[in-house]
Amino acid sequence: MSGIAIALIGAALAAAMAGCGSAIGVGIAGQAAAGVTTEDPSKFGKVLILQLLPGTQGIYGLIIAFMVLLQTGLMQGNMGLEVGTGWAYAVACLPMGIVGLVSGLYQGKCAVAAINMVGKKPEESGKGLLLTVMVETYALLALLISFLAIIFIK
To answer: What distance, in Å, lies between the first and last C-alpha atoms of the chain?
Structure first.
């Protein structure tokens, strides 16, 4: 297997795993949001924001995948990369892929709780938002470590 193929597998894993975490998180939060909105359509705006939060992990995974495509020169037509360098890119993608998957899922669960809180006490939506954003911290840290690891690969 060529180095470029290994690097692309890492990029694909970052995008796919983080995307799956986001899809699951947004999906479960959307179910809760639909229930609250059915009871009181005026709460749609508040629950929509909470539902969207787990979607950021998928965006972060895409950023890392694009970084690999740019750093390897693949977008400029470069098809040559040493196998060891390909592995370095693949491993650099893992923090975003793994943390994106897990944090997307758990941010979705946290968003469900916050959406339920908005359903009962809409004035507490800020607290629910803050609780849900706390999970985002770890996705941002994973984005940072993957980003830094990719840009420092020679």
So the answer is: 20
- Cβ contact 17:58 at 8 Å: no
Counting every residue written for the chain, the total comes to: 154
What the block records as the tokens of 116 is: 């339920």
Per-block average pLDDT, block size 10, for the chain (154 residues)? 93 98 98 96 95 97 96 82 95 98 97 96 93 96 98 92
Q: Which two tokens stand for residue 21?
A: 């975490």
Please report the sign of the dihedral spanned by the C-alpha atoms of residue 20, residue 25, residue 29, residue 31: positive
Helix (H, G, I), strand (E, B) or coil at 129: helix
Tokens read off for 66: 């694009």
